[in-house]
């Protein structure tokens, strides 16, 4: 299939490598230098655009792509206050839109495991839960999109937590997300359940960006020729029944 890469940084370049390995063609690359060309992209030459830029650029890029009728896999974090507008635009333009704060299959399994654990702990309110995330120092947003998604999933399963804060919590009903930035860390997330006598720690460590990039290309393959709004749950369900 024909893929356009929007944002040719750490993720864009890793996605290019995986997409080529899987037999796809890169028919356009948009980065900062040629960002105005996004409005002139030829929708007939692009099955799916994959957008990994930065929080301040994502909304205008997604708006431009969807307005051209191009299906988009969106990976940029830190812009999702505008999510409902983007979904509405995709529906209006009959385009396909796929969003995940983390395309790693492992992270999405980790979400399910953490939510299940939160549901079990709900019967035992002596256990307090918090989230830890560590990323490279170039990361612009905090907390990570993955940590926000993890927090919202846990909040849904527990009565003790009703909102999250990106700091130590002042109130028991707040779920603390503790963020740390260190050189060269692709991404670490942990859900930590602390009891009086013991600690249960569920942790995902990305060894590199290859897992994120592979998931994004799988999402693009899934989205080709489809309209509508999709998430990693749809992609994971598409594997149901495969041996
Ligand atoms: N969903 C997921 O699985 C993952 C999401 N991410 C997210 O993806 C985003 C990108 O991460 P990463 O690749 O590490 O970041 P990088 O900074 O390495 O890459 C972003 C690229 O986009 C370019 N860019 C900035 N503005 C525009 C614009 N308006 N149009 C086109 N290109 C633009 C940047 O150029 P310049 O450097 O010159 O500004 C840079 O080349 C982040 O939000 C990150 O959190 C990251 C990993 C996994
Ligand atoms: O900026 C990154 O690098 C990452 N961003 C995503 C996030 O904010 O959750 C996903 C991954 O953790 C890497």
Automatic annotation (TrEMBL):
<dbReference type="InterPro" id="IPR036291">
    <property type="entry name" value="NAD(P)-bd_dom_sf"/>
</dbReference>
<dbReference type="InterPro" id="IPR022663">
    <property type="entry name" value="DapB_C"/>
</dbReference>
<dbReference type="Pfam" id="PF01113">
    <property type="entry name" value="DapB_N"/>
</dbReference>
<dbReference type="GO" id="GO:0008839">
    <property type="term" value="F:4-hydroxy-tetrahydrodipicolinate reductase"/>
</dbReference>
<feature type="domain" description="Dihydrodipicolinate reductase N-terminal">
    <location>
        <begin position="1"/>
        <end position="103"/>
    </location>
</feature>
<keyword id="KW-0457">Lysine biosynthesis</keyword>
<dbReference type="GO" id="GO:0016726">
    <property type="term" value="F:oxidoreductase activity, acting on CH or CH2 groups, NAD or NADP as acceptor"/>
</dbReference>
<feature type="active site" description="Proton donor">
    <location>
        <position position="139"/>
    </location>
</feature>
<keyword id="KW-0220">Diaminopimelate biosynthesis</keyword>
<keyword id="KW-0028">Amino-acid biosynthesis</keyword>
<dbReference type="GO" id="GO:0019877">
    <property type="term" value="P:diaminopimelate biosynthetic process"/>
</dbReference>
<keyword id="KW-0963">Cytoplasm</keyword>
<dbReference type="GO" id="GO:0050661">
    <property type="term" value="F:NADP binding"/>
</dbReference>
<feature type="binding site">
    <location>
        <begin position="145"/>
        <end position="146"/>
    </location>
    <ligand>
        <name>(S)-2,3,4,5-tetrahydrodipicolinate</name>
    </ligand>
</feature>
<feature type="binding site">
    <location>
        <position position="31"/>
    </location>
    <ligand>
        <name>NAD(+)</name>
    </ligand>
</feature>
<feature type="binding site">
    <location>
        <begin position="100"/>
        <end position="103"/>
    </location>
    <ligand>
        <name>NAD(+)</name>
    </ligand>
</feature>
<feature type="domain" description="Dihydrodipicolinate reductase C-terminal">
    <location>
        <begin position="106"/>
        <end position="236"/>
    </location>
</feature>
<feature type="binding site">
    <location>
        <position position="136"/>
    </location>
    <ligand>
        <name>(S)-2,3,4,5-tetrahydrodipicolinate</name>
    </ligand>
</feature>
<feature type="active site" description="Proton donor/acceptor">
    <location>
        <position position="135"/>
    </location>
</feature>
<comment type="subunit">
    <text>Homotetramer.</text>
</comment>
<comment type="pathway">
    <text>Amino-acid biosynthesis; L-lysine biosynthesis via DAP pathway; (S)-tetrahydrodipicolinate from L-aspartate: step 4/4.</text>
</comment>
<comment type="function">
    <text>Catalyzes the conversion of 4-hydroxy-tetrahydrodipicolinate (HTPA) to tetrahydrodipicolinate.</text>
</comment>
<dbReference type="Pfam" id="PF05173">
    <property type="entry name" value="DapB_C"/>
</dbReference>
<keyword id="KW-0560">Oxidoreductase</keyword>
<keyword id="KW-0521">NADP</keyword>
<dbReference type="GO" id="GO:0009089">
    <property type="term" value="P:lysine biosynthetic process via diaminopimelate"/>
</dbReference>
<dbReference type="GO" id="GO:0051287">
    <property type="term" value="F:NAD binding"/>
</dbReference>
<protein>
    <recommendedName>
        <fullName>4-hydroxy-tetrahydrodipicolinate reductase</fullName>
        <ecNumber>1.17.1.8</ecNumber>
    </recommendedName>
</protein>
<dbReference type="GO" id="GO:0005829">
    <property type="term" value="C:cytosol"/>
</dbReference>
<dbReference type="InterPro" id="IPR023940">
    <property type="entry name" value="DHDPR_bac"/>
</dbReference>
<feature type="binding site">
    <location>
        <begin position="75"/>
        <end position="77"/>
    </location>
    <ligand>
        <name>NAD(+)</name>
    </ligand>
</feature>
<keyword id="KW-0520">NAD</keyword>
<comment type="similarity">
    <text>Belongs to the DapB family.</text>
</comment>
<dbReference type="InterPro" id="IPR000846">
    <property type="entry name" value="DapB_N"/>
</dbReference>
């Amino acid at each position: 299939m024909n893929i356009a890469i929007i944002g040719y940084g750490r993720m864009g370049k890793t996605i290019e490598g995986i997409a080529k390995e899987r037999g796809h063609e890169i028919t356009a690359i948009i980065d900062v230098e040629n960002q105005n060309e996004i409005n002139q992209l030829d929708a007939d030459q692009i099955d799916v655009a994959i957008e990994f830029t930065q929080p301040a650029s994502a909304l205008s890029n997604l708006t431009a792509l969807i307005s051209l009728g191009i299906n988009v896999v969106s990976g940029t974090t830190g812009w999702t206050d505008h999510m409902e507008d983007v979904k509405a635009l995709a529906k209006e333009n009959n385009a396909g839109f796929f969003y995940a704060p983390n395309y790693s299959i492992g992270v999405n399994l980790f979400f399910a495991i953490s939510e299940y654990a939160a549901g079990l702990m709900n019967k035992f309110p002596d256990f307090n839960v918090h989230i830890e995330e560590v990323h490279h120092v170039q990361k612009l947003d905090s907390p990570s999109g993955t940590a926000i998604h993890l927090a919202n999933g846990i909040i849904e399963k527990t009565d003790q937590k009703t909102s999250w804060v990106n700091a130590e919590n002042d109130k028991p009903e707040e779920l603390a997300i503790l963020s740390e930035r260190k050189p060269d860390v692709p991404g670490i997330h942990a859900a930590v359940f602390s009891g009086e006598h013991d600690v249960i720690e569920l942790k995902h460590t990305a060894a590199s960006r290859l897992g994120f990039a592979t998931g994004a290309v799988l999402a693009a393959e899934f989205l080709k020729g489809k309209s509508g709004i999709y998430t990693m749950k749809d992609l994971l369900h598409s594997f149901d029944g495969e041996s």
